[in-house]
Amino acid sequence: MTDRPVLMFDSGIGGLTVLREARVLMPDRRFVYVADDAGFPYGDWEEEALRVRIVELFARLLEEHRPQIAVIPCNTASTLVLSDLRAAFPDTPFVGTVPAIKPAAERTRSGLVSVLATPGTVKRAYTRDLIQSFANECHVRLVGSQNLARMAEAYIRGRPLDDEAVLAEISPCFIEQEGKRTDIVVLACTHYPFLANVFRRLAPWPVDWLDPAEAIARRALSLVPAACVAEPGHEADVAIFTSGGADFLTRRLMQGFGLTVA
């Protein structure tokens, strides 16, 4: 038996949507949630600088926490640096997050799919390769939002949203073509499911908002050794912020997710 944790790493608090699902599937595991709030938002970074930052962060995190597995519920980080992390730290299993384009292509009836993501994920060759490999017969619109991740961070902390501002970000996802309409929008940023109910309320017509959180959690479960569960009375799950601190609203949010801010 061991108390080695499951490490979750995100640019901010978006990965909590995956943590929520992982806890359901792995209630006997201990979790360390790392929010790189000092680097947030990742969409503003140059790719090479962000790659170096994340690899250097993981060198310290893996040394300090010795996790059973590292989960990266962040599309931007995963599509950019997952292969580098696997090469640099071959003894640690990594689970990344990529846009759910394959299941969207399998489910769509109209053939019109939109991928709502950060600008970094939209421009990544990895994303376009997924479309080429799994959605070649669909019309896939890539929508890069500069602001939704920030909006989600504010919203989940209890701050009000401007409906018009949200609608401006999601409107490009909705297209009509030859009598058909977009019927699936892939939420390709783990921050966005926090806004899913707002999206549903503001959408010009109903669509399936595809949230990959459960699939990511199931993949993580499949890679965690069955014997490596936390012993009774194990340490509390913790949240770590790379800025070194968290404000009152953030601490209250973490407590709501059962996390103690380290």
From TrEMBL:
<keyword id="KW-0413">Isomerase</keyword>
<dbReference type="InterPro" id="IPR015942">
    <property type="entry name" value="Asp/Glu/hydantoin_racemase"/>
</dbReference>
<dbReference type="InterPro" id="IPR001920">
    <property type="entry name" value="Asp/Glu_race"/>
</dbReference>
<dbReference type="GO" id="GO:0008360">
    <property type="term" value="P:regulation of cell shape"/>
</dbReference>
<dbReference type="InterPro" id="IPR033134">
    <property type="entry name" value="Asp/Glu_racemase_AS_2"/>
</dbReference>
<keyword id="KW-0961">Cell wall biogenesis/degradation</keyword>
<dbReference type="Pfam" id="PF01177">
    <property type="entry name" value="Asp_Glu_race"/>
</dbReference>
<comment type="similarity">
    <text>Belongs to the aspartate/glutamate racemases family.</text>
</comment>
<feature type="active site" description="Proton donor/acceptor">
    <location>
        <position position="189"/>
    </location>
</feature>
<feature type="binding site">
    <location>
        <begin position="42"/>
        <end position="43"/>
    </location>
    <ligand>
        <name>substrate</name>
    </ligand>
</feature>
<keyword id="KW-0573">Peptidoglycan synthesis</keyword>
<comment type="function">
    <text>Provides the (R)-glutamate required for cell wall biosynthesis.</text>
</comment>
<feature type="binding site">
    <location>
        <begin position="10"/>
        <end position="11"/>
    </location>
    <ligand>
        <name>substrate</name>
    </ligand>
</feature>
<keyword id="KW-0133">Cell shape</keyword>
<feature type="active site" description="Proton donor/acceptor">
    <location>
        <position position="74"/>
    </location>
</feature>
<dbReference type="GO" id="GO:0071555">
    <property type="term" value="P:cell wall organization"/>
</dbReference>
<dbReference type="InterPro" id="IPR004391">
    <property type="entry name" value="Glu_race"/>
</dbReference>
<protein>
    <recommendedName>
        <fullName>Glutamate racemase</fullName>
        <ecNumber>5.1.1.3</ecNumber>
    </recommendedName>
</protein>
<feature type="binding site">
    <location>
        <begin position="75"/>
        <end position="76"/>
    </location>
    <ligand>
        <name>substrate</name>
    </ligand>
</feature>
<dbReference type="GO" id="GO:0008881">
    <property type="term" value="F:glutamate racemase activity"/>
</dbReference>
<dbReference type="GO" id="GO:0009252">
    <property type="term" value="P:peptidoglycan biosynthetic process"/>
</dbReference>
<feature type="binding site">
    <location>
        <begin position="190"/>
        <end position="191"/>
    </location>
    <ligand>
        <name>substrate</name>
    </ligand>
</feature>
<comment type="pathway">
    <text>Cell wall biogenesis; peptidoglycan biosynthesis.</text>
</comment>
<dbReference type="InterPro" id="IPR018187">
    <property type="entry name" value="Asp/Glu_racemase_AS_1"/>
</dbReference>
